Amino acid sequence: MPFAPDPAPRTLPAVSPGPALPALADGDPSWALAARPVRPSPAGDSPSGGGPAPSQPCPGAPGGPRGTAREEEEPALGTALLPLTEPAAVEGVHLAAIRAGARLVRTATRWASPWWLPSTSPERIEEINLWAAKLARSARELAGRPCLVAGLLGPLPATAAAGGSTEPEAVLEGYRRQVAGLLAGGVDLFWVEARHPLEAGLALKAVREAARLPVGVLLVGEGEPPDALPSPWLEAFHSAGWPDALGVATGGGPARAARWLAAVRRAGWSGPLWVTLGRLDDGPEPVARGLAGPKPATQDTGGWDAWDALRLLGPGWVGGTGPWQPADLEALAGRIQAVHPEPEGPAPALPVLGPLNRTGSGSGPAGPGAGHPDAGHPDAGKQAASLPAAAHWGRSRPAGAGSLPGATTSGAGGATGPGSPAPLREKLGRRFVISVELDPPRGPVATKFLADARTVAAAGADAVNVGDSPMARPRMAAWAGALLARSAGIDAIMHCTTRDRNLMALQADLLAAHALGVRNVLALTGDHPRLGSSGASPVYDVDSIGLLEVLAALRRGEDPRGNALGAPADFTVACALSPSADDLDQELDRFRRKLAVGVVDFVMTQPLYELEPLERVLDRLGGCPVPLVMGVMPLHSGRHAHYLHHQVPGISIPARIREALDRAGERGLEVGLQLAEEVVEAARPYIAGVYVVISYGKAEPVAEFVRRLRAWLDGPLPAAAARGPAARSPEEVRHHAG
């Protein structure tokens, strides 16, 4: 029975089912945790960074002494609950693998299933899998490097896999629980290991029912490799559907792995191949006992001809079957000539810094069209005059406080120079602005942050919003993240909260950011430290309104006490608005006070999922005198929608939206993107742009959303967008209502 492609494509552009060239995956994290030589620090402590690394393999571990199913029960029972009981240890294993070069890590869920934990409730099973996924994502954030998180569905115990007394429906329901938890935790793809065709087919079915994410199925390669993949496996895939990748998890080295993969190819499979090895050679010693020297090429024991054969078969992800030490993962990367090498050398070149005072360029008076990209053209004045009313949004500034938005091309809104991103100020009101919110790294490595910034910039985003330790959880300073984003070729909006800094520190950071070319600031009060786990004390010398007053003083060229600074600080300033606030009267009162400071250039809202809250707010305000940028957060699933609605302050998701996501099932992300597009289209008469919030650290789905928006939103802004509903004509109101 030959292989055939799945008639229904299952993947979104977000994740490929496998790299075209060999790339390094991790060792099995569950086995690594089971093989720890010492117990980890108490739950909740931060990992030291090295991660546990076994010096001896566990009984039953692939690559170690052969073990029976019962021998595997001991590590299973002691390890499966660790995502809940010892999260720091789990995070440490992932962190060590990523630092060793792994670009895919599997969740520590090999045994997080009802068959290995028969006395654990289904709800608890789901919770274990959810936290396992969150811990893998957390390690990725700490490492600061691009890395996929694969939800691991491990093999059943040997007796259950062969049929035993386990009913197929019970097996399927167990997989469904695991899949639900892993999806809620934000995995990027699924990695299935199976001993028997039945469990492979049921695991594949459980994933297909719930998500459109790539799925790879690896046969547990026990015994001698066959000449071709046995027909029961082909029949199982014909029944359940074809995986996106196929491969083998073997306890041997490259020669055995190559023979297994050759059997898969001979069966007719031409798609991506994944493989895990138990050793770096095919000799008797497991990899955890140390590296063995290369064997002569004439022996079928892992000499260089075996590695060449493995590479020629074209595997994508190559990882470890059992517990692997970080040093051995690094050696494996060298043997397979893994792609995705870590960038070496200094950080990317930073933008050329421009002058602090941007009151003019000396090339003539700044007229209404001086800031237009075609300001030097003979017809520039006509072009400026023809701009929509939205282009002339903005509040007047005090004399000498720098240019108005769009009033001068000379460095407006940020440092200028070759390769510098176009300033956001020049775009506000002239084109539909799109910003994407990126949280800065949790650690000192910014590789993933820079990659995500480049991804959204290439998709057409105008800027990135860089959070200031959101949710009161410590991250790299927002001004540093903004500077890094600009070095990646995209302008940045730096969030600045009053939670952690007194007045002197606020002024110091703002002046430093300005000198480094960061000119867009979103003024916020900030989440209270008790929301996070840093143990920090709140400062709150001022709130966001007081911060706006500080920014107003800096724009006048003064400090908050009225002392001269020598030059004005030319910031473009935003404030926040929550149309879905529980106490809307208080929210609108504070918003009016923010506008009264006279420094706000544009407004950013909390994410919205329907138009009614925005229209209600604009009606009560009588319109908005400055450009309004609406928050949008594409939803991934029904569970995602329910969590945001019930757990995140300031976000309200209508019941019809939550129900639509519940019904979407495996199409959750696709439906979420469609719903987000619909709310943007409905709000377009009122808004100057959107800022898009990333979920689960996944930049590519948001990049796809940005590409879609750019495809149909580029062009002049509607003139009515400069005015609130109360100021629109009856014809405009009737058109919108229709």
Automatic annotation (TrEMBL):
Residues 398-410 have a biased composition (Low complexity). Keywords: FAD, Flavoprotein, Methyltransferase, Oxidoreductase, Transferase. Its EC number is 1.5.1.54. It catalyses: (6S)-5-methyl-5,6,7,8-tetrahydrofolate + NAD(+) = (6R)-5,10-methylene-5,6,7,8-tetrahydrofolate + NADH + H(+). Its cofactor is FAD. It comes from Thermaerobacter subterraneus DSM 13965. Residues 1-10 have a biased composition (Pro residues). Residues 79-215 form the Hcy-binding domain. InterPro entries: FAD-linked_oxidoreductase-like, HCY_dom, HCY_dom_sf, Mehydrof_redctse-like. Residues 1-74, 340-426 are annotated as: Disordered. The keyword Cytoplasm does not apply. It is an enzyme of class 1 (oxidoreductase). Belongs to the methylenetetrahydrofolate reductase family. This is 5,10-methylenetetrahydrofolate reductase. Pathway: One-carbon metabolism; tetrahydrofolate interconversion. PANTHER family: METHYLENETETRAHYDROFOLATE REDUCTASE (PTHR45754), METHYLENETETRAHYDROFOLATE REDUCTASE (NADPH) (PTHR45754:SF3).
